[in-house]
Amino acid sequence: MKAFRNTAFLTASVAWMGASCMVPVSLDEKDALVGTVWELQQIQMNDGALFAPTSPQNYTVEFTEVGEVFIQADCNRAAGAFNLVDGRITITLGPTTTAACPEGSLDTRFLQSIANANMLFFQGDDMFIDLAYGSGTMQFSPAETVSLTGRVWELQDIQFNDGKLLVAEPPENYTVEFMDDGSMAVQADCNRGRGSFTTSAEGRLGIAPIATTLAACPEGSIGGEFTQALSNANSYFFQDDQLFVEMLFDSGTLRFKEAVAPSLMGSVWKLQQIQMNDGSQTVPSNPDNYTIEFMDDGSVAVQADCNRGRGSFATATDNRLTITGVAITRMACPEGSSDTAFLRGLDSANSYFFRDGQLIIELMYDSGSMIFSAH
Question: Which pTM was predicted?
Answer without folding.
Answer: 0.53
